[in-house]
Amino acid sequence: MYRKKIYKSYFTYPALFFYILLFIIPVILNFVYSFTNWNAIKMTGETVKFVGLDNYIKIFQNKELIRVIFRTLFFAAVTTFFKNIVGFLLALAFNEGLKTRNILRAIFFLPAMLSPLIIGLIFGSVFMKNGFANQLLIVLGFENLTRSWLTTKSTALGTTMFVEIWRQVGYHMVIYLAGLQLIDKTYYEAAAVDGANEMQQLIFITLPRIIPSLIINLLLSLSQGLKAFDIIFVLTGGGPSGSTELINTLVFREFGKKLYGMSSAYGVILFVITAVAGLLVLKLRDDQDE
Amino acid sequence: MKTKKRKIRLIMKEILFWILSLIVIVPFLIVVFNAFKTKTEAINMQLTIPAEWHFENLRTVWEQGDILHALGNSLIISTVSVVVTVLASSMCAYVLCRNRTKGNQFAYRFFAMGLMVPVSMVSIVKVLRVLRLYNTLQGTILVCIALIMPLSVFLYYGFITGIPKEMDEAAVVDGAGAMTIFFRVIFPLLKPATVTVIMVNFLNVWNDFQIPLYTLPDPDKAVIVQKVYNFFGTYTASWNLVSVTIIYAILPILVVYLFGQKYIISGMTAGSVKG
Q1: pLDDT tens, residue by residue, A258-280
Q2: Which of the residues B272, B273, B274 would you substitute to probe the A interface, choosing the one with the greatest number of A C-beta atoms within 10 Å?
Q3: What residues make up the domain containing A246?
């Protein structure tokens, strides 16, 4: 009978209240506003009028805007790929053996602790025309490779991806490490007795057992990549000539122009893409479980 | 013979990874070195030790940038939103986890959804305007609470699953209300999870730029991360001073990291390993 006495429903109310008020209601409002022309471009004040699918039609008829959507997907895919590969390799290296592995782990994890905006600022200086990246290239004798990385159209997006990967690799490493430490050591001992080499152990023992960590890492890195904002905002601001514009920076740009309806429509598109990506990865997990 | 060879290989590996770690360390060294240079010396953010250490840069920025004020704003927002979230999410997760009615199961999934999908900043601003909380610390705090709630409920829920239910039965004291029982008996048991929730959320709120960018445009109310960005906008060419602001913004985090590394890492992986 203690059940009724201590599991009070009202315990859940404060958390639900905050969450619904400033997370769920805004998400719903965003859907609603995306079908309006809500804006404040006129000095006389704001107007809100229901315009149906107009915003979406505008977006999907504009090649440049469709490109932003695909660029966001590309950004998320590339950063996810490298964050996971490098993160996993680091985890393997720092799992055991190395004497200084704890310090190394702490060093590689450090960037994940810091504000992406500040990391963006630091790398803004590293990749500027006379910045450290080019200084290093000159010292190494690759003078012809130097360029201003963030304002050249062909390298800007790649550079922002590099910074995003640099920032998060340690985070994914830590999750893989936790997964590796859950694997029973006796598997490896048995395999070694049977004469399996390190490569075979990796493929037949480690990889199959690391899949839960892989799935959570995919989920996290995909959602981070799709929602990327601070890094782009401070490194390139979407430029040069829109070549690093992602959905979330566009949401802010339209917001700045006071085109709130349009901004909401981009928000909805990002919402749908993120939700679909999340569901796909979760489906991957369910298939795995069967 | 074989062990010696292995030893050498291990040492080589160690050296290799320390060289690799320079990729992480060097950018921070650049910031530290240039923070103490003159404006002209820092113009290209070179990786060189300052010709002369200009420690007065620390003071210049502290005064001109009104750093204390910004750190104070960050501290208020982070602390209040973390405290409220800890109380609300622990209570909520406890009941959701222990009393698995259909409604509670739904509520749990409802929170879990918030872990992945993006927030709608434009509409959040609208809601804040309606509540007359736009451009106030209180409004920003409310937004932070709402956005860190899902992860907190998720972390507590996972932890509570591991505590035997018999504890609850033993905790029931005649005459004491549910609230008293929870905070006297149950909440202390959740301490490891609480430490993690505090650490992870504090970092997230402290580091966030997107929320204050939308909800707190007033420069007087800027949090430290915004301050760094505004400072960068005003003193674009003065990398020495910008570097100092970066140090001011990072230092509190480094202190937290040094003392709470264990809890931060366990927090970031706890939810994930359970899937």
Answers
A1: 888 889 999 999 999 999 998 88
A2: B272
A3: 73-289
